[in-house]
Amino acid sequence: MPPSDDRPAKISFRNITKEFVSQAGGPAMKAIDGLSLDIAEKDFVCLIGPSGCGKSTLLNLIAGFESATSGEVLLDGVGIKGPGPDRGVVFQEGALFPWLNVLDNVCYGPKRLSVPRQRYLAEAHAILRQVGLSAFAQYLPAELSGGMRQRVAIARALINQPPVLLMDEPFGALDPQTRVLMQEMLLQIWERDNRTVLFITHDVEEALFLGSRVVVMSSRPGRVLEDVRADLPRPRDFSVLKEPEFVKVKADLFALVREQTIAAAADSAGSTRPSRIK
Question: Is residue 35 part of a domain?
């Protein structure tokens, strides 16, 4: 499937199939089946679909955490061999080191890459200012709210200045008010830096608000069901939620996801799928 326009693909999934072996000794479960998708440089692609359709599995493939059973996963036309600093990853729970303060969590990556101390400290303080956490540099994660911890996770993902940002439901556990603020902050960062973003969410409204494209996946085994351009004004704020085009496309996407969710529920009623397929 082509990217949004004539730009070359930054990320390519080519005829990807991914199977997981059941820990209970049952037959292998096919999470993704023959999926192809191209993401252009500077695209913000939101991936939605029912639970178990392979959204997080797809993100883990481009992150280098897992390998495809068959097919190719490419970054700038080169096969993915494992994780790397050219891809920043943010998870739903942030995955911060609880014994490190905010500044040390953000600096963890460049320290391991032997970046000079003066350089990574300057970059860390600049990023903490961008995400509004300068005053909390010495705080431990346990002393922060959920939204603040996610801002630390985003800052940590950005400090290596990766061209690709991979986000797996990063705002899913936040309260609605904090979630709105985090969405606005992320859009400001993307509109300023124009990184390529792959963003996983269950929320149709969030996907359409954030993304330049919204890709709908089918029920398991996951395939691309629909690839929708979000041709809405930018810079984007929450007034766009009331626009007739936004309301119409949101309703269409919701109907697609609902249909696939019903199909997934019917399928799971008679089977057990490995818990790691998301």
Answer: yes
pLDDT in tens, 185-205: 899 999 988 899 999 999 999
153 pLDDT above the threshold of 70: yes
Q: Is residue 114 in a domain?
A: no
Domain limits for position 50: 1-86+196-278
Q: 3-state SS string over the chain?
A: CCCCCCCCEEEEEEEEEEEECCCCCCCCEEEEEEEEEEEECCCEEEEECCCCCCHHHHHHHHHCCCCCCEEEEEECCEECCCCCCCEEEECCCCCCCCCCCHHHHHHHHHHHCCCCHHHHHHHHHHHHHHCCCHHHCCCCHHHCCHHHHHHHHHHHHHCCCCCEEEEECCCCCCCHHHHHHHHHHHHHHHHHHCCEEEEECCCHHHHHHHCCEEEEECCCCECEEEEEECCCCCCCCHHHHHCHHHHHHHHHHHHHHHHHHHHHHHHHCCCCCCCCCC
pLDDT at 278: 53
pTM of the model: 0.89
